[in-house]
Amino acid sequence: xxxxxxxxxxxxxxxxxxxxxxxxxxxxxxxxxxxxxxxxxxxxxxxxxxxxxxxxxxxxxxxxxxxxxxxxxxxxxxxxxxxxxxxxxxxxxxxxxxxxxxxxxxxxxxxxxxxxxxxxxxxxxxxxxxxxxxxxxxxxxxxxxxxxxxxxxxxxxxxxxxxxxxxxxxxxxxxxxxxxxxxxxxxxxxxxxxxxx
Length: 197
Fold this sequence. Notes:
- This protein has one helix at residues 16-59, and strands at 62-71, 79-88, 95-96, 101-106, 109-114, 120-124, 131-132, 139-144, 150-151, 154-155, 167-173, 179-185, 194-196.
- The strands form four sheets. It has a five-stranded antiparallel beta sheet, with no helix packed on it.
- The chain has two domains: 14-59; 61-196, Sandwich (Immunoglobulin-like).
- It is built from one helix and 13 strands.
- It has 197 residues and is α+β, with helices and mostly antiparallel strands.
């Protein structure tokens, strides 16, 4: 059953050298496994953070419920301020309106500002402070386009004069980077003080 080996050259080597090589192989394998486990944990953490940020950039955005413009009192027929009613989009987390920026792009150029700047007045219909906490919350955002219109006693001039037939693109960007873009088009004939846009 067992074969006896009489030739010394065919015998396996057993000794301290073989033991050292075996221990070295185990140590190398353990270090490699530790590096792989550490890297896998780091990649998992990074993937989770990236996934959360990506979800926020898609879902944590404002939804424009309605928008209107108001003519100035000078009789020139220009729109001097805009009003937006905004809400949370479905599935979004709480949105702090003080951290939302607005960008206006039109024929008169481009302007970017935070909603907590002097150019803007925010009226929350429901919610906590200037934070939208639920999809039923609504906020009214008024943006003064010219110095002819005061918002809460503050007069600002963004340099926009929206006359009949003009258009303006407004982009709201939340703190997470989610954007909502709406286009304002002034009708070619305006006869009332409030213009539904």
